Amino acid sequence: MKEGPNIAQIAALIGDPARANMLTALMSGKALTVSELAGEAGVTLQTASSHLAKLSAGGLLRQRKQGRHKYVSLANDDVAHVLEGLMGLAAGAGQVRTRTGPKDPALRAARVCYNHLAGDRGTQMFDSLVARGHLIIDDGHLHLTPSGSAYVRDLGVDLDGLTRGTAPLCRECLDWSERRSHLAGSLGRALLARFEDLSWVRRHKDCRLVTFTPTGTRAFDKAFPVASTRRSMGAPAHQ
Amino acid sequence: MKEGPNIAQIAALIGDPARANMLTALMSGKALTVSELAGEAGVTLQTASSHLAKLSAGGLLRQRKQGRHKYVSLANDDVAHVLEGLMGLAAGAGQVRTRTGPKDPALRAARVCYNHLAGDRGTQMFDSLVARGHLIIDDGHLHLTPSGSAYVRDLGVDLDGLTRGTAPLCRECLDWSERRSHLAGSLGRALLARFEDLSWVRRHKDCRLVTFTPTGTRAFDKAFPVASTRRSMGAPAHQ
DNA sequence: TTCATAGTTCGATCTTAGTCGAACCATGGA
DNA sequence: TCCATGGTTCGACTAAGATCGAACTATGAA
Per the database record, which ranges form the HTH arsR-type domain (chains A, B) (predicted)? Predict the structure, then answer.
């Protein structure tokens, strides 16, 4: 008994409502200041400061000082991945937030997950890349094939700049709304950034929502066509 | 702000030390009684009962009554998946349990994750199946190819009985010690069960440890040979 | 230098929830 | 029928920690 890492501390860290709100806000991928996070969580500045210190000590956050501002963001993709998993459990258990708001359907369609595209659009892109052999799973990791490299280069992604980094290029991330994989990792981030540059999408200012422009919708569907096997058959039976 | 499912409740549920100990114990995949879990958590029976009621209400557990015993197990693979993710974060943050015990290296080698094989041996099996085309990722899901179906049938797994179930056949699960994928889902469970039948492995009575017999080691390495690209090159650089 | 803003530290308060003793219910065996 | 065992419910106690006011530090602007 009692083997393995200690879950309780880290889960308790996420388990406080104020801290959970902050982490959820940071899932937008943007670095936020202490004051902004205090607003998100609905607590005063001192309380927020104390919470953020604890989250940082727990390794969940990364902080950068810039002038008299302090910018806080999630530590890495792993943290985002666990948070998405928790959202999946919460959604499954019917623990949807009481004030679920009108934005919920839009969020399920497209949103940012830390820094990459998630939701229906995110899984569409992932599936499309896999179906056409641009992305394969091998050796336990996700890999970009040569055809995939060429493809994302054509889309205008600076792949060489990415591969120099130490962070993994491709990662899977499980979607809480779709319960399927979408693409994370530095490539996932770069693609979303590219979509913004191309004005295919617009990230909402203060939430995780991502809206597609009319031209963006067409271009995206052309770049990442859906396999005929699914989506035409309605939602896949699952669970 | 405040969009998406409510993480805090579910995380707080996991965040109590006593409950976290119970959940960790249940990662062994076995159904345990209330008394046994009370022992695991180091609390009295009435405290354990209260905790288990909360965990069940949160959808994390499944309970079965049998005579005057009540058997408790994890609700599903999703819960196990999130718990593994949390263990990964905790391990990464150096939150390893203080009394980490001598069993830790053995646990990293082979252990059960809810009901399937995890640890180094688990990722070996996963990688081997993928490398030989028995397992592919497609449409966002893991799929068993025809050659894979034949292969596991040869190993003695009753595949037809499995495919009738509603639970997904193949799933990925992220390993906290290896930080790589291993095989979950009903096939993962069936394979581990088969290894036990064949006396390749023995599950430890009261922890997650899985030990390979000498003949089991040989047979397993023959059935799931390691790709020459890794494992010969030492630990992969990651993160 | 002076002021304003961003953030931290400290201390006091107060609520939440984990804990267990005791009594109670249910099942199974003798 | 009686007893032992497994589990639940209730209530009281207690400890942990979230919260905020107040005082303090640091950066930047005027």
Answer: 1-94
